[in-house]
Amino acid sequence: MIRRGLQFSLIVFSLAVSLGSISGYAQEGTKDDATAAKEAYNEGIKQMQGGNMDMAITMFQSAISKDPDYVDARLNLGVAFFQTARFDEALEQFQIVVKKNPQSVDGYANLGRVQNKLKRRVEAEQAFQSALAIRPDDPAILGELGKIQYIGNKYADATATFEKCHSGGGGDETTYYYLGKSYQKQEKMSQAIAALDKALTFDSKNYNVHFALGQIHLGQQKYSKAAAAFKAAMGADPGKHQASYNYAVAVESEFPDNIDANIANWNAFIRHARNNAKAKNDVAIAEQHVKDLQERKTKLQEQ
Fold it and tell me: Is 225 helix (H, G, I), strand (E, B) or coil?
């Protein structure tokens, strides 16, 4: 099943505070470096807000050239690099930020995000843990850490992290989905169902959540509930074929003697998935099963 990623935005800072009374120009006829750095930074923010990332990068780099310790400029330069898929350059900026300011929650959080993007899960987890050491109850960071722990098969850790995220009033359909999956991996099905049901209160048409519920009910041999969940998944995203397959399984498991309905459900799956290369094996299985059902129907009619 395709996992849905957490949705987040890297930190974007506001315009720099005015320096107050400034002479404006040094004796050589150039602006004071601190003033020029602030102005370049502010222009970078405006360009970023306008969607002009290349110019934003240029302006942030200009600010840094005038003030190498300008942490906010480096943070936003990292954001601009991230948003233009220049991930290694973003990583470098965030690493500099946390070195220059070890108390930068946003620096550690953004460092974790870009490391996660680069699939450096261990480093990403460490970065998020560093951010939480400074701001322990940040729900967004807890949510992102929980997902990384889930991906790393640390299901008990992920459960604790998501529960902490939710206890502070944070979370959304994605964090509750991963909480449910974490409980499912630990075979704590009642907690898993509760978390997935909670996810649906945020997004009632979430394919992944309905599909996960269907899997749990199918494993518990609660076929009617499984069929309902898979049908809801089919409605949430008609383009995916897995729910159609499992719906046919659930219905046939509940009503094995309803041959016509089962043939119809399997044929519906076959039509849906026939042109999907990833579903080739499932389609072949379904086609053979339809033949078996038709033979069974013929034998029953001949009796």
Answer: helix
Which residues have C-beta within 8 Å of that of residue 262, sequence separation ≥ 6?
248, 251, 252, 255, 256, 293
Complete DSSP assignment for 110-122: HHHHHHHHTT-HH
Percent helix, strand and coil across the chain, each to the nearest 5: 70, 0, 30
Cβ neighbours of residue 50 under 8 Å, at least 6 residues apart? none
Which token pair is 46? 């405006």
User: In 50-70, where does DSSP find H-type helix?
Assistant: 53-66
User: In this predicted model, what pLDDT tens digit does every residue of 239-263 receive, in sequence order?
Assistant: 899 999 999 999 999 999 999 999 9
Residues 79-92: pLDDT tens digits?
Answer: 999 999 999 999 99
Identity (one letter) of the amino acid at 196?
Answer: L
Q: What is the pTM of this model?
A: 0.85
Half-sphere exposure of 2 (CA within 13 A, CB side): 12
